[in-house]
Amino acid sequence: WKYGFKSAKSIVRIRFVTERPRTTWEKAASQEYGFYSNVNPAVDHPRWSQATERRIGEFRRRPTLMFNGYADQVASLYSGMDLKKDF
Fold first, then answer.
1. Any idea what DSSP says for residue 79?
2. Could you tell me if residue 64 is inside a domain?
3. What distances in angstroms separate CA 84 from CA 2, 3, 7, 16, 53, one per listed residue?
C-alpha cells in the first residue's frame, strides 16, 4: 500500500529471508528514514514537521491525515507498534 518515495515501481522478485534487510532509504539516511517511514502527523521527520501538508494546486496548508489518508485501510497493520520508535 506504500506511496511516494517508498512505493514499488515494479516487482522483479520476492525472497523470503530470516532477517529483515536494510532498505535503500535506511542505508542512504538511516537517521531520517526508518523501515516503516509512514506519514504520521504526530511524528516529525528529523528535519521537518509532518503535522501539515500543502497539496499540489492548493495554496493553503492543511492538517496531514494519518497514513496519508489510508488509516482506515492500513492502521491494523501497525497495531501494538510504537510509531515514534518504529518510524
1. T
2. yes
3. 18, 20, 21, 27, 19
In a domain, 13, yes or no: no
Whole-prediction pTM value?
Answer: 0.62
Domain annotation covers residue 9: no
Domain that holds residue 35: 21-87
Q: What are phi and psi of 27, to 5 degrees?
A: -65, -40
16 occurs within a structural domain: no
**Alpha-carbon separation of residue 37 from 31, 57, 59, 78 (angstroms):** 11, 25, 26, 12
C-alpha cell at 23: 532498505
Q: What is the pLDDT along the chain (87 residues), one digit of tens a residue?
A: 445 555 666 778 888 999 988 877 778 887 777 666 677 888 888 888 889 988 889 899 999 888 888 889 988 988 888 887 766
Classify residue 26 as exposed, middle or buried by CB count within 10 Å of its CB (0-12, 13-18, 19+).
middle
